[in-house]
Amino acid sequence: MTRERGLFAGALIVGTGATVLGVPIDFVLFALTLAGVALFHHRTLQVALIGLAIITLYKLGFTGFKAGPGLGGLALHMLAVSGWHPTDKRGKPLSELPSPAVQYVAA
Asked: Is 25 exposed, middle or buried (0-12, 13-18, 19+ CB in 10 A)?
């Protein structure tokens, strides 16, 4: 167990160096998750879930998702990944509707 911890500490150092060189933190966190799964293979599920939680919290707190920031962005991201897209009453995808912020009121 101490050998694995030492190797993981080395992976942390390499990850820190990669971040300094401009590699996105998301990639570094994912690489550390993979390294943790490989090194602590007797606890694969726990390591993978901890990695998932850390990456999700990082995305929630700092970078957001393509669909938007925060929990709403996470929910829309999960819906988009699942293949389900929200529609209006007529079945037209909401992504094709104009944004309320762009609409102008005729005076």
From this structure: middle
- What secondary structure letter does DSSP report for 105? -
| Helices marked H in the chain | 2-20, 25-39, 44-58, 70-82
Q: Cβ(48)–Cβ(40) under 8 Å?
A: no
Say if CB 5 and CB 20 are below 8 A apart: no
What is the distance of C-alpha 90 from the center of its chain?
A: 32
The pLDDT profile of the chain, 107 residues, written as one tens digit per residue, is: 777 777 778 878 888 888 888 888 888 889 889 988 998 889 999 999 999 999 999 988 888 888 788 888 888 888 777 766 666 667 676 665 455 544 444 54
Residue type, 78: M
Query: pTM of the predicted model, to two decimals?
Result: 0.64
